[in-house]
Structure formats: C-alpha cells, structure tokens
Design a protein that fits this description.
single chain, 147 residues, alpha+beta, Nuclear Transport Factor 2, Chain: A, two-stranded antiparallel ribbon, 4 helices, globular
Length: 147
Amino acid sequence: MAIYQTGSRDASRTNNSARSARIYKDLNLIFSPHPNTKDITKKTDIEAVKQSVKNLVLTKHYERPFHPEIGSNVTDILFEPMTPLTANLLTKQISEVINNFEPRARLVSVNANPQLDRNSYEVTINFYVVNIPGELVSFTTFLERLR
C-alpha cells in the first residue's frame, strides 16, 4: 500500500534561503524621527547588531541598572600606557564582552592597533550575524580616552 501525501507542504522545507525568517530590530539610539510617521526610527539586522556591539564595548560595569555584570573594562584600559601588552589586553576584553553578552554575533576576530600620534586605538571587529551566515561584517572604530 503506497501512501501519497496530498495537501500543503511545510513552508520551512521548501524555503531554499540560507537566511532565517527572524529579523533583528533595535531602536536607533540617535532618536531621529521618521520623516513620514514621525515615530522613532529603528535599525534592523546588521546595523542593529553593529550598534549593540558598539554599546557593549563602551559600557562599563555597573552602568546598566539591575545588570551590573554587563560591561567591560575597555574604558579603564584606555588610561594605561600604550604598549603591545595593553593592546592585547584591550583585544581580550572586547572579545570577552562580545562573546558573553551578544548572542546575535559570532565573533571572528578583534584587532586593536595603537595610534600613538592620535593617542587612541583603532579597533577592528569582524563577526558574522547569526541570522545571516554568509556575510562577514567588519566594524572599525576609534577608542580614545576622555577625561
């Protein structure tokens, strides 16, 4: 006796896309109004994860209410003398905070280059967004100490 399947098939089986159906959304922290709706704009997918990574790197411990564990010592490291050891410590701190607190990013590499003439670090973070596995995201920012 042969069994034939009739009717609709499961949509997830017929979807050939490598992308998941989930879209990451965050508020745009600039709080600029949308030109048509006058509501706060939002960031989606890669831009949302990039904004989150940047916020995690710049957040100190005890800065977020009710979550003192979220944060890193990156801003404290910026006041140390600029040596290769300090750049290595900065790289480890950034890697640790992203791996621990950003589940949407799969970290590939972090590179901190000291810019001695500018008294800052050029930090390049490479990661994949979990939802979009085929696209490597490279994010570069300058970290400098503020008094």
